[in-house]
Each structure stands twice: as C-alpha cells, then as structure tokens.
Amino acid sequence: MFWWKPYEALMETKPVAGDVAIVDLVARELVEVLEAFPPAETDVDWTDERLAARYRGRLHTLPRLDSSFVRLLCRVVRLDLEHETEQIDWLLRNDHHKGACLTTAHEQALQLLWPVVVEHLYQRKDDCRGILKRAHLLQIVDKVAERFGRRALLQT
Q1: What is the spatial distance between Cα 104 and Cα 113, in angstroms, rounded to a whole number?
Q2: ω into 38 cis (within 30 of 0)
Q3: What is the pLDDT of residue 155?
Q4: Contact 91, 76 (CB under 8 A)
Q5: From the CA atom positions of the chain, what is the Rg in Å?
Q6: How remote is the C-alpha of 32 from its chain's centroid?
Q7: What's the distance, Cα to Cα, between the start and end of the chain in Å?
Q8: Which helix or strand (DSSP H or E) is residue 27 part of?
C-alpha cells in the first residue's frame, strides 16, 4: 500500500477559484440553517429588536421547512437582492405565496426568514471584503434552492 492512497481523491481534485468556493460554502451554510429551522430559542442571538419582540418565545410554533417553502423563500430573497420590491408586493398581495405557505405559521416563518437570509448574505459579502458581488449572492440563493430540494428528496 502506498502512503498517498487515502489522499488520492484530494490530490485529483481540480483547483477552484476563491469566489466559487465561497459561493459554495455560503450556500451550504444556509442550507444547514434552513434544515435546522426552527432553531432552539437558546441558539438565537436577536440583533433586530422588532423581530425579537415578534418571535421571541414563539419559535417552537413555526413549522419545519419543506422544499416548496424554501423555493418560495429563495424567490423572495432573490427579488429582494434585485431590488424588485414591486414584484414581491405583487406576489404576496395576490396570494401567490399560499401554495408554499399552507398556514399562518408558514407565513410567519417567511416573514422571519426573508430578512434574516438577506442580512446573512450581505454580512457574508461584507466579510469577504469585495470578493463577493451581487451576482454571487444570486448564485448562492439559486444553489440553496437546488441543494435544499435535492437533500429533501434524499431524506424521503
């Protein structure tokens, strides 16, 4: 046996550009957060007092997320990143979200997660000091929807 055998797969991987690797890592991070939703109350660090006042003590009432909900969330987040507020308003005002938001608890989860995901993406963009652009954030959102759906299929 050769000493490099355990590392052979690693040695055969091709290098990836830094921005591509970061997009992949942030997408993976968000998928893990969404899969663990709703979080335990003790795991939440409330930075927005409005959200804290609305959801503190009620997180356990929010539903686990399914792939149709995550697709809707990603669609709304994508529209937000593109500054398409009129489209978001149209979508919500005309109840086009009801297919993925089956209950008021789902709607509350959407109202909580939407700004949290957008803020998380902008925070990661700031953390990367110019490496990530808005186009990268949109790629992350697309990867989250795709990966969450794929992982949900594997778990069934």
Answers
A1: 14
A2: yes
A3: 64
A4: yes
A5: 18
A6: 8
A7: 39
A8: helix 18-35
Cα–Cα distance for residue pair 15/21, rounded to 1 Å? 10
Helix, strand or coil for residue 59?
Answer: helix
Report whether 57 contacts 41 (CB < 8 A).
Answer: yes
How far is Cα 11 from Cα 7, in angstroms, rounded to an integer? 6
**pLDDT, block means (10 residues), the chain with 156 residues:** 67 79 94 94 86 89 94 97 96 92 94 94 93 95 94 64
CA separation for the pair 86, 116 (Å, rounded):
20
φ/ψ of 63, rounded to 5, equals -80, 160
Distance, in Å, from the CA atom of 106 to the CA atom of 142, rounded to the nearest integer, reads 21
Tokens 């992982």 belong to 151
Cα dihedral across residues 132, 135, 138, 143: positive or negative: negative
Phi, psi torsion values for 102, nearest 5 degrees: -75, -25
CB < 8 Å & 24+ apart, contacts of 46-52: 48/115, 51/112, 51/115, 51/116
